[in-house]
Amino acid sequence: MTEKTRLIQKDHGQQALAIHLVNAACLHDWANTLTAVQREILAAQKFEGKPNQTAILAHEDGWLAVGGVADPADLSSWCLARLAEVLPAGTYRLADRLPGAALFGWQCAQYVFALYKQDEKGQGPRILLTDDDDDLVNGLIAEAQATNFVRDLVNTPAQDMGPEALEAAARKIAQEAGADMRVTKGDALLREHPMVHAVGRAAAAGFAPRMLEIEWGDADAPRLAVVGKGVSFDSGGLDIKNSAGMALMKKDMGGAAHALALAALIMRHRLPVRLHCIVPAVENAISGNAFRPGDVLTSRAGKTVEITNTDAEGRLILADALALASEHRPDLIIDFATLTGAARVALGPDLPALMARRDETADAFLAAGRMHDDACWRLPLPGSYRDMLKSNIADLANSASGSFAGAITAGLFLDEFVAEDLDWVHLDTFAWRPSAKPGRPEGGAALGLRAAWRMLQQRYGR
């Protein structure tokens, strides 16, 4: 991952190239401040002040940059991202304003995943100077680092990001924060988290299943559980996916990446909570001992589950994780999971599907996402749909009997394993961007992470 902290530097009046921000409404007035030659050059570049347009003009002994934005007076997270992608390496400052929230996109736009490219040189850093408040700057640097952490983990192929590698990533985060970490695997995993064991038992020895737990914070603080689905690769199991369905399944641990990134933000900023981060880490592989359609599994909570589809495995491992979280009676549980294709059919790649028990919690989450350019969309949890998960031989089936409301029935399945009176939010996120946008390259993506973090800051008072 490209080092991000030095992309934003304190403005001490050092030499820098100016960036002017305009939109179509103010372009004419701004252009009148230019020389005739500069106006001709601007017109030659077909610059019209539209968002994400850029231009470069000769100016005195050097040059200046021009960026099109929706509203120069209200900068969003992504309005400087295109400039950060296309400008030459160098040091810049905005001509007549502070970048504020746009510092986030400036950093994310310069992300490069080059772990496997020997000839990846890049064009050098574009540094932005700012005199914004230090707390704001440091917070946006941390959020960009968390975003790029998710991107790194999701972009890494399953050969190098299996359950053991997820454990190493979690351990590094825990050690840096001085947190406690527990890893459960082998016979202990079979006893304590039987559905995690069942889903992961077919994997090769080096990719054995495990449950990862990080504990941090004052024992008297409100308890917060953050859970992430860590399926490092999903073949579909015996209900095997086709090749197109498997193509992106290295990203099926995207929920775990989000959970670990959020845990790191919580600990770095010392949010006054007792954090319990839980990641069930497995590979859904195929071998002679793989779990089968028709099997009945007993969960940590004691409920039995008939397996009607081995490709609906993420909800099985999350069920054990949510049951574990519930046992500690947290103030709030948040889980992240790349859970269903149905959520993507309903909402597309950009919007995580949010399901929650309490309206006030959902509203706070959605508001935080809107305010910080990380929108989510709420789906309901209607009790009338629980009948779709009925089984004739077990307490419930792991996959609905029909094709309707797939994201919702998955959420209802998870709801069965969260204690009835607990506050719980489920995010069915894609963790992937199929096509690039300014500041957001194709590949691994953090979707819902900033919304969750900002909601938690508001909820717990820091």
Keywords:
Aminopeptidase, 2 domains, six-stranded mixed β-sheet, 462 residues, Leucine Aminopeptidase, subunit E, domain 1, nine-stranded mixed β-sheet
Describe this structure in words.
- Keywords: Aminopeptidase, Hydrolase, Manganese, Protease.
- This is Leucyl aminopeptidase family protein.
- Belongs to the peptidase M17 family.
- InterPro entries: Leucine_aapep/pepB (IPR011356), Macro_dom-like (IPR043472), Peptidase_M17_C (IPR000819), Peptidase_M17_N_1 (IPR048816).
- One of its GO terms (molecular function) is aminopeptidase activity.
- By secondary structure, the chain is of the alpha/beta class.
- It has two domains: 8-132, Leucine Aminopeptidase, subunit E, domain 1, CATH 3.40.220.10; 145-460, Zn peptidases (Aminopeptidase, 3-Layer(aba) Sandwich), CATH 3.40.630.
- It contains 15 helices and 20 strands.
- It has helices at residues 27-31, 36-44, 81-86, 102-108, 134-155, 163-177, 186-192, 194-200, 243-246, 254-268, 314-327, 341-347, 359-371, 406-415, 449-460; strands spanning 8-10, 17-22, 54-59, 62-68, 90-94, 126-130, 180-185, 210-216, 223-228, 230-234, 274-284, 296-298, 304-306, 332-337, 353-356, 377-378, 396-397, 424-428, 432-433, 443-444.
- Strands 7, 8, 9, 10, 11, 14, 15, 16 and 18 form a nine-stranded mixed beta sheet that branches.
- Helix 8 runs antiparallel to helix 11 (314-327).
- The longest helix has 22 residues, at 134-155.
- The model has no long low-confidence stretch (mean pLDDT 96).
